[in-house]
């Protein structure tokens, strides 16, 4: 076979053949699990799709094997073969770990949640990070539960709320410090890219996000998570300060609205939804800014991420929002939200009369002053 024939054969190979086929083997010992138990594995297969497998526990042992790609979060659950009527609803016995190619050992007595899972560098990294943060996260969870109970009480105890908030701040700061410490000391870890995706991407400001992205190695950026992270970062850069922006969307009257039709004005483009409590809390401040600055060439365009027209328009009427409102009623699948990677609200950006973004995420009681500073 000549070289051209070989190249031709390679080019027509199915994509699945070229996909990484990272084999894994899991051997488990559950010494006191008893009979009639099964271990369920939830993981990502070699194509990055959700997959499941199971193995019956026999003589306190089980084995699982398969293929994956890169290293991804996986879950092992211990479940009864027969329906357990004594188990409370929502109660489950599972353990989270990182699965990649190689051999894994699972050791426990009668509960998966207390199992020791070893194997693979990503799992070592995960255990390292967990050891450094688990106590802090448990403490912060307790604080959060206490705060929720007080904050949503029929009669709010403002003193207790402030006390708990004061307690939470240093704990949260320590968690963030531990998170950043791990991220910047493990740039080649699949755990790191997950931590960044889970904790640093709700609202991406390219300027502050860049240090997290640029330290990541090509290896982890090639992963399924890495590819999604790169795509999201690229979208966020489209709405960074200094970028020109335009879009067309249907307004609340059913007409096509084009952002560039407002050239010559300062425009605050605001992503919100009727169900978003923080968004609704900002509306009185935006109304104040709109009332004070409209005569000076200021406008607001609200982009609703609602899915029902009634909920959207009822909120507009209830909150007294007189500015331009647009939506295609697709929630976070709204065309504009998808294009610019909007995955959390509220978010907004201010564009100048030339259609250039000059500020982002202006909020709070002094939002009128923040906006007025740009309008000469």
Mean pLDDT: 91
Distance between the termini: 74 Å
Might you state the CATH topology name of the largest domain? Glutaredoxin
Structural class: alpha+beta
Segments where pLDDT lies below 50 for 5+ residues?
1-18
Q: Could you tell me the radius of gyration in angstroms? A: 26 Å
Tally of strands: 15
Main beta sheet strand tally, sense and closure: 5 strands, mixed
The CATH superfamily of the largest domain turns out to be Glutaredoxin
Percent of residues in helical segments? 25-40%
Strand content: 15-25%
What does this structure look like?
It comes from Pedobacter hiemivivus. It holds the Pfam family DUF4369. Residues 1-20 form the signal peptide. Its main location: other. This is AhpC/TSA family protein. With 376 residues, the protein is of the alpha+beta class. It folds into 3 domains: 15-118, Immunoglobulin-like (Sandwich), CATH 2.60.40.1110; 123-237, no CATH class; 248-372, Glutaredoxin (3-Layer(aba) Sandwich). 40% of the residues lie in helices and 24% in strands. The chain is built from 12 helices and 15 strands. The chain has helices spanning 3-11, 15-18, 121-151, 158-185, 190-199, 206-214, 218-221, 224-237, 277-293, 309-319, 335-340, 367-372, and strands at residues 22-30, 37-44, 50-56, 61-68, 72-80, 94-99, 102-108, 116-118, 248-250, 256-258, 266-272, 298-304, 324-326, 347-351, 357-360. A 5-stranded mixed sheet has the order 13-12-11-14-15, covered by helices on one side. A 4-stranded mixed sheet has the order 4-1-7-8, with no helix packed on it. Strands 3-2-5-6 form a 4-stranded antiparallel sheet. α3 (121-151) packs antiparallel against α4 (158-185) and α4 runs antiparallel to α5 (190-199). It is elongated. The relative contact order is 0.08. The model is unreliable at 1-18 (pLDDT under 50).
